[in-house]
Recover the amino acids of this structure.
């Protein structure tokens, strides 16, 4: 069968669909509510830093094409197993798990907004959803696979339409008279970069499309950049729409800002429209993360970065250890408190720091591999020497430094991230010494990383050990 | 002998069969007017060991490959090699080898034309 090749349009559609999730709207609401329209500057900074990193990812992808493990495999070839396990296995998995928890919280909060008269805690709704999706995934049934693209596009189209209506001031609701700028000092604008960064994370998920692309050399990097710019423009429309129809303080305090905005813009129609779209998007995201993460855990176990029990499957072929662990993780974080905007925005900041650390390592990989293999053919090579990866690293470091305007919050964020990294470092050290038995910091040869993709690799290496 | 080594070079590319058509479709861009392709068996430093195998073969295992031989103007060699490298690259063992050698002369037997003339559309017909 001849496989259908995709073009630039499909790459952009997939990129936008993968990055925009319902929890992004929460970051947008909190950010815009806190400082008003200057949040557009914050978003632009975060967008640029993300684009720079995605360009580095594109160069790594041209050096190690068609890998399924993504950033972890690039990192194995760049910095060796110790840092890879800390940042890519631990950090990246944790990021996705936290993202799933936040999506679950958005679902719970949206439902509890619908049934506000009954006073049911929002985590109850989240728990029902997570349990349901755990059961379906354990039975090997991916309930949302057929509709998830549709749901993602419905969310994006809804945001674009509502953003434009609001920006132009042609909604049916009453236009709010309020200043466009709540705070515009340097510290306030850059202090929300972490929140803004969360609006653009995940662009690297486009990379697996490389092998199905008609002109991957051009379309993958260009598609990633255009996806980011489209998301930025869409979010700018929304911020300008918020200014016209929603009080900034109400927006900042809302756990479901998009529903609040929908109601203020178009009355009950807007409220129900956003309600349905958000619910579907949140269910789809939690399901996708639970499903894909269990397979990523399985894949990482196959390349000996995680214990072998992640490869166990039940009678239906589902990697049940990963699914159950993910469900427990989502439930734990939601039951212990992810219902207020403060707790969610704190969680998003932790997630953003971990994700940015993964991105920093990715940029370091580019520089190290340039030094090690200067003449290896790269179908996509960043121009201007080391400038792009270095700027991406500096941008990410700066965003971590200015993750929150409050020093107290910042220190507690660093503490959590520090403890997480310390725990992962102990695991990484013991795992490499006892199981992998390779030097901690010696990078794997690219040919070995490429060979690990072959399903026979593990079989042969098991026999050898 | 009319041709100096600066004018013509021979490039031999050993690679997988799957890559041959994709590669040859673009040869005309580099002033290549003809090509010779033949089946071959061989191995490199891995002695034919598959990349997923943990132990290296002790006895060479010969793998099926294709060899593409072209002669082209020496000034085109660098850009041609870059194109071939990027086209063949997958990052996996077995992407191929490229050998470049100078050509001291080329002769079209039928007309007796030599050097670059022997590679162009004939002018003596």
């Amino acid at each position: 069968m001849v496989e259908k090749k995709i073009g630039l349009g499909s790459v952009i559609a997939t990129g936008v669909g993968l990055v925009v999730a319902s929890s992004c709207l929460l970051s947008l609401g909190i950010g815009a509510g806190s400082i008003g329209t200057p949040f557009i500057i914050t978003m632009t900074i975060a967008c640029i830093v993300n684009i720079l990193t995605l360009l580095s990812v594109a160069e790594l992808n041209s050096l190690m094409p068609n890998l399924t493990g993504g950033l972890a495999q690039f990192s194995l070839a760049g910095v060796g197993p110790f840092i890879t396990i800390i940042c890519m296995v631990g950090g990246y998995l944790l990021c996705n798990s936290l993202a799933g928890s936040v999506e679950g919280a958005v679902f719970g909060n949206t439902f509890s907004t619908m049934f506000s008269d009954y006073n049911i805690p929002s985590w109850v709704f989240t728990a029902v959803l997570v349990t349901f999706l755990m059961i379906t995934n354990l039975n090997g049934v991916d309930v949302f696979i057929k509709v998830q693209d549709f749901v993602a596009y419905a969310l994006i189209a809804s945001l674009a339409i509502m953003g434009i209506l609001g920006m132009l001031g042609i909604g049916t609701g009453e236009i709010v008279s309020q200043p466009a700028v709540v705070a515009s000092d340097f510290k306030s604008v850059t202090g929300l970069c972490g929140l803004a960064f969360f609006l653009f994370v995940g662009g690297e998920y486009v990379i697996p499309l490389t092998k199905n692309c008609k002109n991957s050399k051009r379309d993958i990097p260009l598609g990633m950049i255009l996806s980011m710019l489209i998301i930025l423009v869409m979010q700018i429309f929304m911020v300008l729409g918020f200014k016209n129809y929603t009080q900034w303080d109400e927006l900042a305090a809302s756990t479901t800002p998009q529903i609040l905005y929908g109601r203020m813009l178009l009355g009950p129609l807007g409220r129900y429209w956003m309600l349905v779209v958000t619910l579907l998007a949140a269910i789809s995201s939690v399901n996708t993360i639970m499903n894909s993460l269990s397979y990523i855990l399985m894949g990482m176990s196959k390349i000996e970065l995680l214990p072998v029990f992640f490869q166990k499957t039940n009678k239906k072929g589902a990697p049940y250890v990963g699914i159950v662990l993910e469900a427990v993780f989502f439930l734990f974080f939601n039951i212990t408190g992810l219902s207020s905007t403060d707790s969610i925005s704190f969680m998003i900041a932790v997630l953003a720091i971990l994700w940015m650390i993964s991105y920093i390592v990715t940029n370091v990989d580019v520089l190290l591999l340039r030094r090690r293999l200067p003449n290896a053919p790269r179908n996509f090579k960043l121009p201007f020497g080391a400038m792009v990866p270095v700027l991406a690293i500096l941008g990410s470091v700066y965003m971590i430094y200015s993750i929150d305007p409050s020093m107290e919050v910042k220190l507690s964020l660093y503490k959590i991230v520090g403890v997480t990294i310390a725990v992962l470092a102990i695991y990484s050290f013991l795992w490499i010494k006892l199981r992998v038995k390779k030097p901690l910091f010696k990078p794997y040869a690219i040919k070995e990383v490429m060979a690990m993709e072959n399903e026979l690799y593990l079989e042969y290496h098991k026999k050898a050990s | 002998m009319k041709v100096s080594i600066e004018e013509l070079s021979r490039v031999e590319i050993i690679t997988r069969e799957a890559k041959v058509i994709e590669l040859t479709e673009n040869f005309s861009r580099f002033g290549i007017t003809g090509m010779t392709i033949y089946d071959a068996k061989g191995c490199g430093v891995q002695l034919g060991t598959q990349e997923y195998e943990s132990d290296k073969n002790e006895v060479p295992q010969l793998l099926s490959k294709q060899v593409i031989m072209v002669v082209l103007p020496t000034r085109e060699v660098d850009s041609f090699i870059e194109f071939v490298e990027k086209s063949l690259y997958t990052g996996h063992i077995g992407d191929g080898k490229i050998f470049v050698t100078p050509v001291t002369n080329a002769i079209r037997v039928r007309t007796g034309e030599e050097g670059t003339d022997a590679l162009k559309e004939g002018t003596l017909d």
